[in-house]
Structure formats: structure tokens, C-alpha cells
Design the sequence.
């Protein structure tokens, strides 16, 4: 299933029809055709692709990990057919929740609303995968922009730390959070 949304954020289903004059953002499975474009994206302001970014792993690293994790689903974030970001998510059977493992928008496309719309599409796809399940993610303590974005989509800080710099956030489906003992992280690296 491909979710599509015009770049006008509306309070209606996330499968809005593209209208003339608006660009269309879609999620696509990572393929041979778009994988090279996807791995060349970076959030580093200097444009250098590396795992040295303080907030997020490189797309190449995360796609490599996703290829070894059967429950992970990588999605290229496409703007009019061009890769501008990457999201990877998975469902945890043992604790019955979803996790957004990786989410990034390339530095050239940040601060234009693309991340907000892409996150809406990703969350819709995740909810379609496992309705009525809580969605978890980790965020670097210094990434205030991502923290505010996630809060605007209903994620709350769990006050649990995955490591010294990454905290756990959840978007509860029914207001009930999993206990700390019930949470088994799908990933050990950060989402954003």
C-alpha cells in the first residue's frame, strides 16, 4: 500500500489526492532503483555522509541493519519521485508495540514541512500495520526540533533513557504506557 499526501497539511485522511500546483510526498519501499539515492542523503550540515552525526546513524548503516532484521520495514520518503528521506519501523511481537527505528529528512529538504508530512504518512502506515498499538521511538536529548515534532503528533516522554543521550518517547494508542520491564528495544541507535 502506498500512502500519498499533498504538501498541504489537512485535518483529513492522509491519502489526499494531489492537486495541480502542489508537490506529492510518498513512501516507497527501498529498491535497487532508489537505494543509492537514499543512502546518499544526510542530515549533516556539511553534507558529509557519516555516522558521526550526533543525532542519527547514516542511512547506509540503518539499511544494512534493516536487511538483517526481518521485522523492520524501510521506506524511502519521496518528493515527486526523488528520495528526500528514510524511515524504518518494525513491530515487536513480544511486547506488542511498534517502533519507529529511524527517521530522517535530508538537510536540503529540512524546515519546509516535509518531515511533518512524512511523519504523518509513516504513522498512518504503522497504524495500518498494527492498529491499536503504541508506537515507540528514541530521540537524542539535544535534538529539540525532533522532540517538538514528535510531541505535536502525540508522543510523550516516558522518562526512560535507552542510553546516556537517548530518551524513549511513546505515542500510546489508549493512554496506557508499557512498563519499563515490558519494553524491549528494537534498536539501540537513535531515531532523530
Sequence:
Amino acid at each position: 500500500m502506498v500512502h500519498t499526501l499533498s504538501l498541504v497539511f489537512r485535518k483529513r485522511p492522509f491519502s489526499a489526492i494531489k492537486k495541480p500546483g502542489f508537490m506529492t510526498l510518498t513512501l516507497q519501499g527501498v529498491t535497487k532503483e532508489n537505494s543509492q539515492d537514499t543512502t546518499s542523503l544526510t542530515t549533516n550540515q556539511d553534507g558529509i555522509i557519516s555516522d558521526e552525526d550526533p543525532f542519527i546513524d547514516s542511512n547506509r548503516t540503518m539499511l544494512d541493519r534493516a536487511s538483517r532484521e526481518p521485522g523492520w520495514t524501510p521506506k524511502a520518503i519521496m518528493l515527486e519521485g526523488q528520495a528526500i528521506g528514510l524511515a524504518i519501523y518494525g513491530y515487536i511481537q513480544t511486547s506488542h508495540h511498534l517502533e519507529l527505528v529511524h527517521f530522517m529528512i535530508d538537510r536540503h529538504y529540512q524546515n519546509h514541512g516535509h518531515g511533518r508530512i512524512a511523519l504523518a504518512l509513516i504513522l498512518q502506515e504503522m497504524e495500518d500495520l498494527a492498529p491499536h498499538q503504541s508506537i515507540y521511538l528514541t530521540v537524542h536529548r539535544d535534538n529539540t526540533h525532533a522532540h517538538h515534532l514528535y510531541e505535536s503528533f502525540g508522543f510523550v516522554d516516558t522518562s526512560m533513557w535507552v542510553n546516556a543521550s537517548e530518551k524513549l518517547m511513546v505515542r500510546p494508542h489508549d493512554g496506557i504506557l508499557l512498563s519499563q520491564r515490558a519494553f524491549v528495544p528494537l534498536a539501540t541507535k537513535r531515531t532523530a
